[in-house]
Specification:
- The complex is a heterodimer of chains A (about 80) and B (about 160).
- Chain A is an alpha+beta fold and about 80 residues long.
- Chain A has 2 helices and 4 strands.
- Chain A has a 4-stranded mixed β-sheet, with helices on one face.
- Chain B is of the alpha/beta class and about 160 residues long.
- Chain B has helices spanning about 15-30, 85-100, 105-115, 125-130, 145-155, and strands spanning about 10, 35-40, 65-70, 70-75, 120-125, 140-145, 160.
- In chain B, α1 runs parallel beside α3.
- The two termini of chain B are about 25 Å apart.
- Classes of the chains: A alpha+beta (about 80), B alpha/beta (about 160).
Chain lengths: ~80, ~160
Amino acid sequence: MADHTLDAKGLNCPLPILKARKALKEVPDAGVLEILATDPGSVADFEAFCRQTGNELLEHSEDDGVYRFLIKKAA
Amino acid sequence: MSAEEKSMSIIVTKGSLDWAYPPFILATTAAAMGLPVTMFFTFYGLPLLLKDLKLQVTAAGNPAMKMPMAGMHVGLPNLLTAVPGVDAMASVMMKNLIKKKGVASIDELREAAVESEVRMIGCQMTMDLFEYDKKDMIDGIDIGGAATYIECATQADINLFI
């Protein structure tokens, strides 16, 4: 289960990433942030974001144009 | 935080609405990814540090600027771009498009840059040359010259000129 959910639907690059960074600060270490987005570019961007920051992209999926990401915050 | 910390610097030389985007998008994103970022604002980029931003696009000399309209992409004929009011009109259209598409405003991105501790340096020479006053600029910026930037660039892994 996610500790925190960020609704980034309707936002374009780079806002989902910027807001995710902010939201991660509210998540405890090893906690999980759920992000909902509609920007198709966010798939590649969250993968890159996680590789660079050491946070773990647990899963991502798409349902009817809404992308859902689960990111586990680096401890 | 990442194991190997990289850093980035950007020289910002252009201050129109469209050209303000790349440096602020890259700076805020890099900062969000944990990179220390420095932006050096010089020449026409310097007004991007003014408290009161009055940004416009310039259609003249920009044949690649085409706006989506009624399912097509429409540009302005060169001659028309010189007509007074055309830039203002194109700027209003651009700002509406930006809002509609969920793209951040430059004010928003600049706030995010300040919040994420991006270091912003205003070029002293440009301030003298174009008669800008630091009191008209946002708080928290540094003022410096070429040497200030070079010192920072020697330590950065990514140096961009925009």
